[in-house]
Design goal:
25% of the residues lie in helices and 31% in strands. With 246 residues, it is α+β, with helices and mostly antiparallel strands. The strands form 4 sheets. A 7-stranded mixed β-sheet has the order 3-4-5-6-7-8-9. The protein has a 3-stranded antiparallel β-sheet with strand order 12-14-13, sandwiched between helices. A hairpin with a 4-residue loop joins strand 6 and strand 7 (105-110). The termini are far apart.
Length: 246
């Protein structure tokens, strides 16, 4: 349904300044909720386009969904967007699905069963040196000029997917972000052998009270510790890095 509306006429607006949304987001969200809740009626629901309900915290399993991750690329007619779906139990994803039909890519992962793209197994990079690591970025900060920028889709999930497929070595964000952006992609990357944590190198736990986490760090396994060390000073200086209850 989403792909059929891509590059077509859509109605768009901003939820808050700098955060675009369109009617396709809402229609896709409603359709996904209808179909996914039919598969597991006992699960809770956490989605970018649905008002959050704390009742999800009482459920054993929770669907964590972004109907269009990378809305800017979707609205601009670019292919760097994806539909992201994860089923979470006990704070960790059991399954993850990314559909990027504009790129002809369909990603799948089941916990303990590996990850695939278009049915083919994928594997994270064996890179052992942080210097020269490939990063999906338009422009790298001066401190990171020893890294190598590669194509950056708007979707953070697809950027993490690049790490899973060995097409990038490092993805990092240093701000609070939402679980629906990363839950599916994180499982895909982990099942492909990558390491995925928050920006501080701590394990990610999903279906949290606020439904968010401080940053994400997805890397080839051998460079994760070096990446955490490089980012440590910037993490310490990041505004709003601590919640009141931390």
């Amino acid at each position: 349904m989403v792909h059929g509306r891509w590059r077509g006429e859509v109605r768009q607006w901003e939820k808050v300044p700098g955060h675009p949304v369109c009617d396709v987001d809402l229609e896709a969200d409603a359709l996904l909720k209808l179909r996914l809740m039919a598969l597991d009626p006992e699960a809770g629901w956490l989605s970018e386009e649905t008002v959050d309900d704390a009742e999800r915290l009482t459920r054993v399993r929770v669907w964590v969904v972004d109907p269009i991750d990378g809305t800017r690329d979707f609205l601009r007619g670019r292919p760097g967007w994806a539909v992201s779906i994860a089923l979470v139990e006990g704070g960790r994803p059991l399954l993850g699905v990314l559909d990027a039909p504009a790129r002809g890519e369909h990603w799948r992962a089941l916990i303990g069963r590996g990850a695939t793209r278009n049915g083919d197994p994928i594997q994270a990079s064996p890179r052992e040196d942080l210097i020269g690591a490939r990063v999906p970025a338009d422009l790298l900060p001066r401190l990171d000029r020893d890294l190598v920028p590669v194509h950056k889709p708007n979707s953070i999930a697809l950027r993490i997917g690049m790490v899973a497929a060995g097409e990038a070595d490092l993805v990092a964000t240093l701000r609070w972000g939402n679980e629906w952006d990363i839950a599916a992609a994180a499982l895909i990357a982990q099942e492909a052998g990558a390491i995925v944590t928050d920006a501080r190198g701590h394990p990610l736990r999903y279906n949290s009270t606020h439904g968010d986490a401080f940053g994400v760090l997805a890397t080839a396994p051998a460079i994760h510790q070096a990446a955490v060390a490089r980012l440590a000073a910037r993490v310490a200086e990041a505004p709003g890095r601590q919640r009141a209850e931390d």
